[in-house]
Amino acid sequence: MPNLAIVGYGKMGRLIDQLAHEYGFTVTARIDVDRNESLQGADVAVEFSVPSSVAGNVAKIAALGIPIVVGTTGWLEHLDEVKAIVGKNDTALVWSPNFSIGVNVFTRLVTEAARLFQNEKEYGAWAWEIHHVTKKDAPSGTLLKLVEQMRASGFNRAIDASCNRAGTHPGTHEIGFDSAADTITLRHTARNREGFARGALKAAQWIIGRKGCYEFSDVLFGG
Ligand SMILES: NC(=O)c1ccc[n+]([C@@H]2O[C@H](COP(=O)([O-])OP(=O)(O)OC[C@H]3O[C@@H](n4cnc5c(N)ncnc54)[C@H](OP(=O)(O)O)[C@@H]3O)[C@@H](O)[C@H]2O)c1
User: Assuming Cys at both sites, which of 73, 139, 191, 209 could form a disulfide with 143, CB separation 3.0 to 4.6 Å?
Assistant: First the structure.
């Protein structure tokens, strides 16, 4: 059974710990601010911590040649630095602001809708999300990714983006297109965090034995 290190032992880290055995992993390290177990012997690490810790955590894990799954959001200004660290240590990374399979399919649907609407100038677009009050980044990495993908597919008009933080909501993302004639609303609603944890564990199985940097969409749909 491959050994799994869990880096960041908050809500996501604990859930990954509960589900890891279903994916054939033995959890050999649980690391958090006040918990420091050895990474030695880990075959793969899953990182769900805080944005300011990602680059440092990746440097420590990559220095041991351990492949890494990063689920933390809000750190993408360090993406080039993180990719360079992974390359220098000849190891591997899968990152995603959202490890839900549903959200990754949803992103493809949104991208296709944006492509189809790119020349239909009477249609305006919006992007919106809501999450629990303890989420540290806003707007979510997933919303930023959705807007980026819409742009990449050729939708060059304004996309009015907004977000809310309230209660314990695990995450809803909505993309809409509106004209005088009609409205299309595309919405993904997470029921709980389990889908994110299961996707990260699937990515952890996939990254063992690979080199280089990947997104979760590579795991699901191929490179
Ligand atoms: N990609 C996805 O699918 C997905 C899904 C859900 C959440 N997320 C993201 O994953 C991250 C964690 O979410 P969460 O809900 O688990 O948050 P959380 O409950 O706040 O857990 C984060 C944990 O990381 C700890 N931590 C802080 N600095 C650390 C360090 N240097 N090394 C190791 N651990 C450290 C925190 O400790 P302290 O509390 O002491 O600071 C806390 O226990 C967030 O960025 C969130 O947006 C991503």
Answer: 139
CATH number of the domain within which 21 lies: 3.40.50.720
| Same domain for 78 and 64 | yes
- The number of distinct structural domains making up the chain is 2
For the chain, how big is the Rg over CA atoms in Å?
Answer: 18
Burial 78-112 (b: 16+ CB within 10 A, else e): beeebeebbeebebbbbbbbbbbbebbebbeebbe
User: What are the tens digits of pLDDT across the range 21-33?
Assistant: 999 999 999 999 9
Atom of ligand 1 nearest to the CA of 7: 33
- The string of pLDDT tens digits covering residues 9-65 is 999 999 999 999 999 999 999 999 999 999 999 999 999 999 999 999 999 999 999
Q: Are residues 169 and 208 in the same domain?
A: no
21 given a catalytic annotation? no
- 11, 60, 83, 135: the active-site residue: 135
Residues flanking ligand 1, CB < 6 Å: 7-13, 31-33, 48-50, 53, 57, 71-74, 96-99, 135, 193, 196
The parent domain of residue 32 ranges over 3-99+194-221
Among 169, 184, 177, 101, smallest CA distance to 138 is for 169
